[in-house]
Amino acid sequence: MIERWLTELGATTWSVALRDSHYVWPFAESLHVLTLALFAGSAALLDLRLLGAALTRVPVTALTARLLPWTRWAFVVMVATGVLLFCATPLLYYHDLFFRLKMLLVAVAGVNVFVFHARAHRTASAWAREAQLPRSARIAAIVSLVAWGGVIVSGRLIAYNWYACDKAPLPAAVVAFTGCPVADSSRR
Predict the structure, then answer these.
(1) Which 3-state string (H, E, C) describes 2-18?
(2) Which of 49, 65, 109, 112 has the most C-beta neighbours closer than 10 Å?
(3) Among 40, 67, 72, 71, which residue's Cα sits nearest to residue 55?
(4) In the prediction, which pLDDT does 187 show?
(5) How far apart are CA 80 and CA 13, in angstroms?
């Protein structure tokens, strides 16, 4: 059912136009990468501060007040351009191993941000000036750096199509994770 819907989405006039565009597609992809860089860079600065590895003289609350608006705007544009890129070839992305890994890591990073802001950051004013921050803040920083680093690497690997459904034979684990249709060997 979802594959049929994604096939129909990929066949819409605007999806085909986006996919075939000489200007819109490269612009959207470039904007996606640039806002990812802005987002990941500002998030990494915050994470390094939480780890006590950088900007230790700057209170965490002051740093988050300055960087979070940039981080949030970059995230919004990054997601919007990502959705646009997905809509150009939805079925291809849906079955892509690295796209699925990227989305899994985005979910991990999102849960991490939610938990951090719901718990540890609520008490940030009490520990904002300390060089060694609470364990929960440091763990959140490590999870963030690993997850967003993984998002960047897996996003880059999407372009190579090493495990595309039409590449045979695929390892069983890849078929299971990507949901690639299995060819019926009895018809050969």
Answers:
(1) HHHHHHHHHCCHHHHHH
(2) 49
(3) 67
(4) 39
(5) 19
